[in-house]
Amino acid sequence: MIQCQNGAETHEKAGVAISFDDHFINEWFALRPMFQKYNAKVTFFVTCPDSLTNDEVAKLKLLQSDGHEIGFHGTIHGKSTELIAAGPEKYKEIEITPGLSYMAKAGFKPTSYAHPGGDHNNRVDSVLLASGFKILRDVAISRRKIMGFQMYALAPRLMPWIYYSFDNEDIVDALLIDEDTGLTEPEMIEALEKAKSTNKALMLFGHEPLYSKPRNGEYGFNVPFLEKILKEADRQKLKFYTMSELPQTK
Ligand SMILES: [Zn+2]
């Protein structure tokens, strides 16, 4: 049998890397059966780890033992470009070191970092990479409304920067899937198809799992919408990657 490698289309690495930010530990944990149903592995970026209760730590450990990744999202969820202005040592002392030691005490050693508020610059990035993080995740938004007016709209499949090319890149953008982005299921299906056809990993992220329209300052994604994404990824036989797996996959 002749093995034809050249020019053959390959989809073996095609996948999706989904992450969740902030401190919705109980709400994330409630999604566990859904993740199990689709064999999905995701990353939870935890902020303010000083307030982790024993119960939350136990839940995060269980999620980690399922194959999910526990990443770090800052000690105080501050504005890093302002904190770094006082120097890299001060920035680490306020935003990085205390939180990491709370995480370590709880038994976690995060290797991925999500920028609080999507705020960062080259100095911040170099401090974080020198601190041992393997991948830094920023925010990409496909729709932005200002004073209720839609200023721009890009279909996710036309946003090459939300796809991981397995080139060892350690500074990446993930597409926000929260309710207020107005993303639709057909757009997400097309975005997943693009990952499949280009053999890349689509990077997505959200905040609180919500079961109805956001109320009283809630910010998060619609759970049935996430389930559609997981179901479609499963149907297309896409791989689920945690964030630290991306730069490790050759
Ligand atoms: Zn955040």
Order of helices and strands: EHHEHEHHEHEEEEEHEEEHE
Bound molecules: zinc ion
Share of residues in strands? 15-25%
The CATH homologous superfamily? Glycoside hydrolase/deacetylase
Task: Indicate the overall shape.
Answer: globular
- Number of strand segments: 13
Any descriptors?
250 residues; globular; TIM Barrel; nine-stranded mixed beta sheet; alpha/beta; single chain; metal ion binding; binds zinc ion; two-stranded antiparallel sheet; 13 strands
Would you summarize the structure shown here?
It contains eight helices and 13 strands.
Secondary structure layout plus pairing:
Blueprint: E1 15-22, H1 25-29, H2 32-37, E2 43-46, H3 54-65, E3 69-72, H4 80-83, H5 88-106, E4 112-114, H6 122-130, E5 135-140, E6 143-146, E7 149-153, E8 163-164, E9 171-176, H7 185-198, E10 201-206, E11 208-210, E12 220-222, H8 223-235, E13 239-240
Parallel strand pairs: 1-2, 1-10, 1-13, 2-3, 4-5, 5-9, 9-10, 11-12
Antiparallel strand pairs: 6-7, 8-10
Helix pairs in contact: 5-6, 7-8
The structure holds zinc ion.
Residues 21-22, 47, 73, 77, 116 line the site of zinc ion.
GO molecular function: hydrolase activity, acting on carbon-nitrogen (but not peptide) bonds; metal ion binding
Domain NodB homology: 14-250
Keywords: Hydrolase, Metal-binding
